[in-house]
Amino acid sequence: MTRSATIERLPSADDQSTPGEAMAQTHRSRFAQDEYSVETAESVLDLIGETPLLRLNHRLARGIKAPLYAKLEYLNPGGSVKDRIGLRMIEAAEREGKLKKGGTIIEPTSGNTGVGLAMVAALKGYKTIFVMPDKMSPEKVALLKAYGAEVVVAPTNVARESPESYYSVADRLTREISGAFQPNQYFNENNPLSHYETTGPEIWRQTNGRIDVFIAGVGTGGTITGVARYLKERNPEITIVGVDTEGSLYTGKEVKPYKVEGVGEDFIPGTVDLDIIDAWETISDREAFLMCRRMAREEGILVGGSCGLAVAGALRYARKVDEDKVVVVLLPDSGRSYLSKIYNDDWMRDQGFIDRFGDRKVVADLLPTASTLICAEGSETARAVIDRMHQHGISQIPVVASTISEGCAPSLDAIIGVIEERSLLEKVFRRPETLDAQVTTVMDAPLPFVDAAEDMEDLFPLFTDGGNGAIIVREGEPVGIITRSDLLEFVAHQRSSRQQEAAKAAPKANSKGGAQ
């Protein structure tokens, strides 16, 4: 079997074949029987693309009505979405005569593009030199060297135009080394084109054309631009959401240092079409990294920081989406390149990402030893519910559809809404007769559910995104409500306790004032 010099356009949802037949056709194009009648790929390059969708339907997406799917790009043979562009850029350079036999490929990279290029170069016999910023994980450096690449490390916190920046160093090496070629993923149109011709059609076919929202982190912008162009050609109503990191130029006025790798920029690359992006979500380093750790524990998915950023943004945006909308978020790379950072407690603690409470705290720590969820029945009047809230000193009360026995917890499905003190006051002020209306006519949407075993850290996005409360669930039953004031009080108490413990542990000053 010989490999085509170009990436073939994949079957789409508009083809006459069924989704199963289209998948089988794509499968046959990637594999063939050899002389021993074994179905096999001829090279690792034939395994690039056709990554699956996975529905995020466990604790991670609890409280989100819209179906949320993850495109698992870390299942590419090189471990990231950048395998797609590495192959495309090299094959295009060969066709155009820019890369010749015995040549050297030089590229500034955060690591993943380097791996994609190095994998292709290893099969085609090219030398590779990659220039990386010094914030990249040691695993990425070791991985590139494993493919036979030379790695040059440059400082991160310098201006792009500085001769020390990893962009400038790559440019200089390209000029100085004979036969060198720089793909330049930041300005190479084959970057978004590879996603227009492969990733976009895959998503369209895999969702049977039902995708409504596509979400991805934005670095070079090639992925989101290429996918968006294809999807919007099929359906202009599809919403494209970019996820950026705090400190990046895409959503910030001032560029600041950040730790997430592979996303955000301090300049606008030529490969991104900002006009095609309909909405943005901005995520902090801390939120991105903690989301990575949650995904490993709750979904069994080990991913990199840019994936945590994308999923955190997707969860935030998906809360605004109707339940009949199909949402797809792209996960660019594997977490195996970040074991010494994101998944290392010492590194996370040194960076201040997991030292908020000292020892690990879970949501259940907010509940009193004996807690009972107080509910209102849908048939009750607002006046009666106000009296009950006053009696128990609470500001929010879930509304259930049917009568429940005293002391018994309702099922999760029975909770149809919530009465919130502030919202109800506004309604009563405008229409006093609301006091005698059934609570089902004045209630708000149900509060999100959080598992009692989840990390306390996971609660913060719920409240920083404008939420007023959450229902705590233990073994499938609702057992209590947590409010913003509850969380604030808990944090203040924990901080006070830690300061007191630190003061007790500190050595007493010498009575004469001199140090020993």
What does this structure look like?
This protein is α/β, with parallel strands linked by helices. Among the domains are: 100 residues, Rossmann fold (3-Layer(aba) Sandwich), CATH 3.40.50.1100; 133 residues, CBS-domain, CATH 3.10.580. The protein has a 6-stranded mixed sheet, sandwiched between helices. The chain has a 4-stranded parallel sheet with strand order 7-6-5-8, sandwiched between helices. The protein has a 3-stranded mixed sheet with strand order 13-14-15. Helix 7 links the parallel strand 9 and strand 10. The chain is elongated and about 85 Å long. The termini are far apart.
Task: Summarize it.
The protein has 516 residues and is an alpha/beta fold.
Largest sheet: 6 strands, mixed
Individual helix count: 14
C-alpha end-to-end distance: 78 Å
Strand order of the largest sheet: 3-4-12-9-10-11
CATH architecture of the domain at 363-495: Roll
Query: Which structural class matches the secondary elements?
Result: alpha/beta
Strand fraction band? 15-25%
What is the general shape?
Answer: elongated
Determine the mean pLDDT: 86
Number of strands: 18
CATH class of the domain at 363-495: Alpha Beta
Give unreliable regions as ranges. Answer: 1-24, 508-516
The fold-level CATH name of the domain at 363-495 is CBS-domain
Tell me the Rg in angstroms.
27 Å
CATH superfamily of the domain at 363-495: CBS-domain
Helix proportion:
25-40%
